[in-house]
Amino acid sequence: MTAATPSPLFPRVSTPAEYAAVPRDADAVLEGLDPEQREVATALHGPVCVLAGAGTGKTRAITHRIAYGVRAGVFQPASVLAVTFTNRAAGEMRGRLRQLGAGGVQARTFHSAALRQLQYFWPKAVGGEVPRLLERKVQLVAEAAARCRVRLDRNELRDVTGEIEWSKVTQTVPEDYPATAAKSGREAPRDAAEIARIYAMYEQLKRERGVIDFEDVLLLTVGVLQERHDIADQVRRQYQHFVVDEYQDVSPLQQRLLELWLGDRESLCVVGDASQTIYSFTGATPDHLLNFRTRHPGATVVKLVRDYRSTPQVVHLANGVLAQARGRAADHRLELVSQREPGPDPVYTAYADEPAEAEGVARRIRELITPVEQGGGGVPASEVAILYRVNAQSEVYEQALADAQVPYQLRGAERFFERPEVREAGLLLRGAARAGSADPALTDADIPSQVRAVLGTRGWTPEPPAGSGAVRDRWESLAALVRLAEQFCASQLAAGRQVTLADLVAELDERAAAQHAPTVEGVTLASLHAAKGLEWDAVFLVGLTEGMVPITYAKTDPQVEEERRLLYVGVTRARRHLALSWALSRSPGGRANRRPSRFLNGLRPGSAAPAPRTPGGAGGIERGSGGAIAPVRKRRGPVHCRVCGRTLTDAGEMKLRRCEDCPSELDEALYERLRDWRAEQAGQLGQPAYCVFTDKTLLAIAEAVPGTEGELSGIPGVGRRKLDKFGADVLALCSGRELARAEGVDGISGNGSEEPARNSTEK
Length: 763
Hints:
The protein is α/β, with parallel strands linked by helices. Helix content is 44%, strand content 11%. The protein contains 29 helices and 19 strands. A seven-stranded mixed β-sheet has the order 3-2-6-7-1-8-17, with helices on both faces. Strand 15, helix 24 and strand 16 form a beta-alpha-beta unit. Helix 26 crosses helix 27. The termini are far apart.
């Protein structure tokens, strides 16, 4: 319960220049904030919910809120507790608060705050010393499995450990695990009953040895605060104002702890974005964010949509990725509005195969990081990132960057050749190379077949395993080795050289040695999950194919929607340059049967654009009126040609969603029928034809041929009023049905001989 310790990353203000940088008074804290950020900063009383899109300055808004409250005398620094999810974010928040003259405010992770309270109150609540904290639970889980006579390999062990962690943050006890996991749709790595037994034994071993794990820190703190009202009252006297960052990522257990900290008070400010919920597999849920107004009817809701990070082109693509989203989080998505100068359009590239994709990306990065005076882009290598879905994808990019002499660093993952399964595979292949023809499984087989035979003993199969987690990661690493063997042999044979398994092992050793060089400041290689919270000038999103984004094992609608949000997070990491790519086949010469990610439909050039689903929320303030947080009418952003991808500025082209001179898919017969129908309607209404629909709108309808009201409403120029008035007729014409006509309206009776309209799909 003491003040935060200084961080070397954020030194305390000490020089005259630094003192001058501190705002002179409370009003000066508000300088430079936009209207919505200022609203956040000045909303010091009552519950506040900040819905903050990517790049909208949420950390700036909430740190200025705390600093304004402190400098205005409303908050005492020691009475404020700000919680977030990473030590990095907490350290950044403390540093900003010190620079704003609000030192002494506690900014911590949930676990750090809970551990300090547990250590402080344990002697009083329980007696004695706090049990020793178990830094890594894997070894104890392995012992628990052995006690249950269940054999787990290294990957299964990691997955079972993950299931135990998920169970604890969702407050699921061992006996309830099978039913809860099934209800949640989790892909258990082993039989659910086996995991429940291991989980129970793990808890027993901890009790026997007097140790606790990180999840226990939260559970025990919750237990102490629930059972000891005197201790809960003491905590509430100490902390009277709470701020929670990344609120979409809270687990049920963290939410319960927050409720106990608060008691019956409402001095709470939460910040989050449901569209950035990408950790549901760990127990995170956006429901607490989306239900905030229901729990706190008097809450002020502020929406931050001014994006200061990315160019209008990047922001437009980010909005487009979410335009087709489904589900509750999608209903409350935010429509970002860029505040930056225009930049280059995103680049979409299809490559023949994965090595070609990696080489193309490395070549483009080489151009970007070349100094301007040498004809390059002048972007620092540290401001470039390659983001992929799974860590096993890194190997081919590591090699391509090394070949192009581009420095790089891996984030959030081991280097490919340092992974345990890759090291083990290397040893096995080296042993097989020494055995040679003495191994009957390798006799008369080509090198790739030999590699498959060897790695097949360690988990490689022609088809990937079902589900996610460590088993899938291991398979991906082994599959990457198989592909590497295929590519190496193909390149050597093309050069007229015969190779042996020993040659392949030597090639692997050379690659491993080249990639064991000391880490340097360079291009970042990271998974999409590891990239959360970071940003770069240039981002390359790679491997965007069906089966990878969304990943194969994303089967249910919620799982697919989380994959969509993961791509959205990737897109919003880019400030200026954004490239999206995919490979049509896995290996050179392979069958080109891969398809680009469905999430790019309507965004990449030449792809069909589905009708928009849900409106995005505009920025602004909503004062307490109760109920769930309501979506706000969509604010339109830039429009790109659906054929060539160029940004459109002409109103007519924007309506058609293509350049005038780009190829169209116009159904000419339908267009003529629509024109005839429009003339008839205009005559009946006594208005000009364009008052029904303009020529451009009719062209857009004849090109899109909508089949539902939703698809028709997605066409510019078809608003709600015209949809209600003319929608049924237009959809009937598009489907080829004959319109019902009243006798004598146009001189043709109901039993006349007019030929029925031909179905527009007939050729």
